[in-house]
Amino acid sequence: MPQAVNNFCLNPVRPDDAAALQSLYASSPRYFQTIAAPIPTLEDVERELESALGDSRRQLEFIMDGDTLIGYLDLKFDYPQVSDVTVNLLLVAETHQRRGIGAFVMNDLERRLSGRVRRVLAGVFGENPGAALFWEGLGYHFSVDARPILSWYAKHFDLQTTSGRELEASAP
Question: Which end of the chain, N or C, is less packed with Cβ atoms under 10 Å?
């Protein structure tokens, strides 16, 4: 079931959504330049989705504005530890950035996770001061230095249940 976020909607990603995700990646070249990686091909994205959707701990969501794909959220539950959720990627299309969409999505995610997780972690690849400022602005704190590849930011929460995976069965 789609989940409303402000004026936006989060829809689960399906195995046949590779072309849509690859199109989003292609419309976000600055992100891939920042992390010094080529834009993934359709074949790369098909393999990425097959792997991610085959992992019961992963949850992938498209951020939609009506019928328009404007972003992507990739989560991994119980990673790196039980009761953690890692944001593998929060990507908003370049044409929709700086409008508060990422903050709305994360605030909604934190609401959905409330009481279910101990902490949320976000990885920042390479030298990406804009991403670091984004996470810090949401109350995340520098947590682990794995540079030059990755820096981790974390936000701690009160845990009331045993598994963040319960999010999948709940609806706002």
Answer: N
pTM for this structure? 0.85
Token pair belonging to 79: 């990673």
- H helix intervals, the chain: 18-26, 29-34, 42-53, 101-113, 129-137
- Greatest mean pLDDT among 91-105, 115-129, 139-153 lies in 91-105
- Of the candidates 43, 48, 45, 114, the one whose C-alpha atom is nearest the C-alpha of residue 85 is 114
Strand intervals (E) in the chain: 3-5, 8-12, 58-65, 68-77, 84-92, 119-125, 141-146, 150-156
Instruction: Provide the CB-side half-sphere exposure for 113 (13 A, CA).
Output: 29
